[in-house]
Design goal:
heterodimer, A: alpha+beta, FAD/NAD(P)-binding domain, D-Amino Acid Oxidase, Chain A, domain 2, Arc Repressor Mutant, subunit A, 5-stranded antiparallel beta sheet, 12 helices, B: alpha/beta, Immunoglobulin-like, 3 domains, 7-stranded mixed beta sheet, 5-stranded parallel beta sheet
Amino acid sequence: MMYDVVIVGAGVIGGMLARQLSKYRLSVCLLEKENDVAMGASRANSGIVHGGYDPEPGTLKAKLNAEGVEKLFNVAAELHAPILRNGSFVCAFGTEEEENTLRELYERGQVNGIPNLSLISGEEAREMEPALSEKVSLVLNVPNAGIVCPYELTIAAIGNAMDNGVCLKTNYAVNGIEKTEKGFTVTSAAGEVVEAKYVVNCAGCYSDKIAQLVGDNFFTIIPRAGEYMMLDKTEGSRVSHTIFQVPSVEGKGILVSPTVDGNLLTGPTAIKVADPACTETTPEGLEQVARLASKSVPSVNFRQVITSFSGVRSSEKNGDFIIIPANGVENMVHVAAIDSPGLTSCVAIADYTIELLREMGLVTECDPTFNGTRENPHAFREMNDDEKDAYIKEHPAYGKIVCRCETVNEGEIRDAIRRNPPATDIDGVKRRTRSGMGRCQGGFCMPYVMRLLSEENNTPMEQITKNGAGSEQLKHRI
Amino acid sequence: MIVEHDIVIVGGGPAGMAAAVAAYDSGVTDVVILDREPGLGGILRQCIHNGFGLHKLGRELTGPEYADAYLKEVEARGIKIYTETTVTAVSPDRVVTARNREGILKIQAGAVVLAMGCRERSRGALNISGTRPAGVYSAGTAQKLINCEGYMVGKTVVILGSGDIGLIMARRMTFEGAKVEAVCEVMPYSGGLIRNIEQCLNDFDIPLYLSTTVVEIHGKKRVEGVTIAEVDEKRRVKEETKRYIPCDTLLLSVGLIPENELTRSAGIPIDPITNGALVDENRETAVPGIFACGNVLQVHDLVDYVSDEAEIAGLGAANFVRGSKSEGASVETVPGNGVRYVLPQRVHTETGKDTALFMRVTQPFGKVRFTVKSGDEVLATAVRLKAAPGEMEKIVVKGDKLAMAKAPITVSLEVVK
């Protein structure tokens, strides 16, 4: 069939675009080269809703960040994606240079139209945030900022898009985009073909490669890796705000932040890497994270680290988002170089992109059947004991806890395997349910999760993967 | 609706079962066991090797056989068992909340025995750098997949950590046709039992590299190899010793952590060394009527000792229900020279009963003499030809000596020439 729009890349940008397009009478297809959605930058980043004081006034980043905050809070609520307005602190550590930078950021925030910014003293900040270092002398208080789970937001957006008719094709590595009389043919490495009238390139770290398929060479993505350490929930209430540092020579943006799931996140480093698939952690990187995080919040107990990881974001030399029509062909848009504050801006980016598509001639007629509310996957855990009891009596699988660390039950895991977008591997179940994300890191629940995947998908155990082909967990039946 | 039971036991592994039987046999028969698995026995169910029961039952059994021996005793007494039932909360006033396929269960317990066991330290806790591919398992997870699910997890294996599970799994993987390239231990000595080093490594020519660790994991989708390196006495990596070992599997046997989330939620103070609750000689925690035993209290080397400890806790719980608990003066126990911890952390001194103290040493020693003192009063001494952190020590203090303890009791050791 000929789709109206094909989106290349099922990260938070492609996913949110698909969801916003699903409001209209349009056929939309979302292509993803990995086995699941949210597998690039959307899988591993800081999960911050940035206030918007940081981007240079006049840039796309400044515009879309400022617009994006409230849009994101609204859409996340509709999608039941966990989001929390915890506010952020940007800290100066006693030097005049740092304090001046904070004042500049404050002024920039005023120009960008960011509400309720204030500069507060170290003492005032410590009254609100007692674990903050004694060395903190001045703080930019950003009350409109927040935290969100990036992969859950992506999964929720794509799930809602699919519920509204969007087609998701995973394991579809685009290797050709040909202009035809009617539109495009978008081919995969495996030889599949999808046809579309409009194409949007949301391929993250690979967006320059996708652009090259239509002859566009005007931007080059610089993949930048950031390493993080995630701490147990025992550390989760160490701070309530997201604590940033004024950018300095030593590091740029190591933060200490609670997560929407109740853990404590520290990181990231920022290291240029050659290969966007390079998500290795390094002893030096992790050491740097611990050292700089301790500078802001000295009491963080790094013995409570439960996992460390690295995420790669797609930067570009000019530093701004690239959201423009393709040069080489008509009816194609590149949405590229979406690094921070891309997550914050994702809804605004989607809406801005739809505006570009309209200018190209895409007709967007509202679909009256569109339902923007996604069923709450966390409904059970938000119930009180009596409600849970009643629910279990109707749905016994909800009474069987599979992941003890995160209290995830069999019913929730089966739902995650059945609901859009379906989890097809162990990591997919983990990102949707948190099973295996706790302190034991799947030691106890992994065999059980594998059995449920095997049962639900009628797949032999040996074929169950961690994250797609090649990552099989078992060798053979004994 | 809240139901009532005299004793609720959280966890039906070896500790929970032995505690239940001991409580029942002392006369408190309204005992229930709650367990999250489909059957009782806990981790013993996946420990199909032998070596269990020599001390306690006088027979050499496999893990499942040891579990079955206790299960028979539990069933013979008609002790109520809830399986596939996970406890989600224990309150300080002993209301136990659990969940199973039938709904939410709330029990007001006369006494609670915590017997949840322990979990393995994960890769995340070690912060090993590199990629995050498939093929990295904790040794116990691999053991479960092989022994209970019936699937082989890999063909070429490196094992990090020479704890007992790692040693057992080195042999188990070899039996199933895998090549175990190396067992690496970051410490200059193994934390496992000596018999396991002999029977699981030496008998199969599997090399054990001491003061050596895994510094990096390689492979995008599945493990392709690991970099190992020697460490100095401060556990710093010696860069020049780095070497790559190709393998498709990395097993981690790097320590066990008592699973005390429920304990903490009940407001029970935890010993930072054992990672288990602070208890007295009855294994009663600082919250009255809540007892703890087995690997949730301290990680044991032998299941036989778990059963012993659980009997103390079961009896303590029964006595609490009867209203006859230890009273009077009590003193703390303190680890002295060469001793890492002493359990129980507090003892009542006027009970007139002999009391066993359990401890681990800080490092391997040759011949040593342990001295148990309170102030200047020597309460007990014991000589051992060898002492190692992997082997728990037990010293009994006589009741009449204990009555002389007016100050904290210190256990220390000196090396005997």
